[in-house]
Design goal:
about 475 residues; alpha+beta; Beta-lactamase; five-stranded antiparallel sheet; four-stranded mixed sheet; about 25% strand
């Protein structure tokens, strides 16, 4: 009996040493999709990773970026016209049966690509925005790289298979997250249906959403889901990007290469529940982050001290199995603050855990610098400048040089004029002195006493005598 009780106590202790909620964790083997990622929509923190950087074909999730570019570069009520070039597409794939010369609004075309995933509407939008399909594809890749999706390359606006048209689950999550910052995009991304009015060449069309989690009244509907886009090609298999919200928390999940149609919905639901149910917020106060100091260097000379601070606390989501006491702050500290080309002072927050598919990196922040440069720094050699902002533009430097040159020229001209006036005044003064001397001499001559022609100065007659 005692042995049995002892064994039960040991078993209880062992069980308590493992979190009871661990059974709810979504193991990678439970996710049918080849690659998947779960990301916090507000911060970009990755909560779940299954090969999220593996290259895959996006299929029609491509249209998320197509719609974003259309929203950013066209007005919803602009009229666009379908061209023969835009409608030159393979016979397979989703479409809304546009014909050459058919006119519609940008808004209707975006609804057409986001709900029934119309490839023809995608090309019509691409031509309208960029002028050609090739130029639009270049815009897509450039925009993706600006967002941070640097492992993606896009060669068309619709997502039909091309060898060099690829992305990753992580990149597609970044693109979706960035697009969701645009209120106009969210209107299309979260729509369940749209009635497209009749055009000049077709009757009205009833456009239905293919992301069933957005459609009330059918299997798979989830009121927490706020947006989504599905895709499929033989090479890409089933793909889907989805956003959802619960209790103030917003998530985005992307699943790629799901073997069969319903796998993407099952995987997405499991990942969303995982993110909503098994993560709690962790906050690090601003006072625990700030306070570091670095010497300010310029030309090898220490001229002051830079203090790094942060006004806002750092907040991240941690899995309930993790121990907050194990939080590690990795300070990426430069050796000094170079005033000419400062290196950012960043802090990375990492929290090791027992789940290998939950990334340990919680996030990275950059601290704000405050410079304390004593007055003596103002006594640096002539020409030394202290820069705490971006370098002066070339045109401004050139303008300053021209201004200085004009100022010097004006100064030299002024000095020349003053010198000339001084020389002229000196000559005038000498002429006046000579003239005054001549006047004095003439006056002396007039004062010479001459009486009856007798010059008393030399005792002689100079003229006839008076009679």
């Amino acid at each position: 009996m005692k042995k049995t009780v002892a064994l039960l106590l040991i078993a209880a202790i062992v069980c308590l040493s493992f979190p009871l909620h661990m059974s709810g964790a979504v193991e990678p083997s439970q996710i049918r999709s080849r690659t998947a990622v779960l990301m916090d929509l507000d911060t970009g923190q990755v909560l779940y990773n299954k090969g999220m950087h593996h290259r895959v074909y996006p299929a029609s999730t491509t249209k998320i970026l197509t719609a974003l570019l259309a929203v950013e570069n066209a007005h919803p009520h602009e009229i666009i016209t379908a061209s023969t070039t835009a409608l030159d597409l393979p016979y397979y794939g989703a479409h809304i049966a546009l014909v050459p010369g058919e006119r519609m609004t940008v808004e209707d075309a975006i609804f057409a690509i986001m709900l029934p995933s119309a490839n023809d509407a995608s090309n019509v939008l691409a031509e309208h925005v960029a002028g050609s399909l090739e130029t639009f594809a270049e815009m897509m890749t450039q925009r993706a790289h600006e967002i941070g999706a640097v492992n993606s390359n896009f060669t068309n606006a619709h997502g039909l298979h091309e060898e060099n048209h690829f992305t990753t689950a992580y990149d597609m999550a970044l693109i979706t997250r960035h697009a969701m910052e645009n209120e106009e995009f969210r209107r299309y991304f979260g729509a369940a249906h749209h009635l497209m009015p009749a055009t000049n060449m077709n009757v009205e069309r009833n456009l239905h959403q293919m992301q069933y989690m957005l459609v009330p009244g059918i299997d798979g509907f989830d009121p927490e889901v706020t947006g989504g886009k599905v895709g499929f090609t033989n090479a890409a298999r089933h793909t889907m990007s989805t956003t959802a919200t619960r209790d103030g928390r917003d998530l985005v999940t992307v699943v790629m290469y799901s073997p069969v149609r319903w796998d993407k919905f099952i995987d997405t639901r499991a990942l969303l529940d995982f993110g909503f149910d098994e993560f709690v917020p962790l906050t690090v106060g601003a006072e625990e982050i700030a306070g570091s100091e670095l010497p300010i260097m310029q030309g090898g000379t220490e001229i002051g001290v830079a203090t790094f601070e942060r006004e806002e606390p750092f907040t991240a989501l941690i899995h309930t199995s993790a121990n907050p006491a194990q939080l590690q702050m990795q300070r990426n500290t430069p050796a000094h603050y170079n005033i000419a080309s400062p290196v950012p002072y960043t802090i990375s927050f990492e929290l090791p855990g027992s789940l290998p598919f939950v990334p340990t990196l919680l996030g990275t922040i950059e601290l704000e610098s405050h410079l304390d440069i004593p007055v003596m720094a103002a006594m640096l050699p002539m020409g030394t400048e202290l820069h705490t902002e971006a370098p002066t533009p070339f045109w401004l430097i050139a303008l300053r040089v021209v201004g200085i040159a004009i100022g010097v020229a004006v100064l030299v001209l002024t000095l020349l004029v003053l010198g000339l006036r001084r020389r002229m005044a000196k000559r005038r003064r000498k002429r006046m002195e000579r003239f005054e001397l001549q006047l004095r001499q003439a006056e002396q001559n007039r004062n010479t006493v001459i009486h009856n022609g007798y010059n008393v100065r030399n005792n002689s007659y100079t003229g006839r005598r008076a009679k």
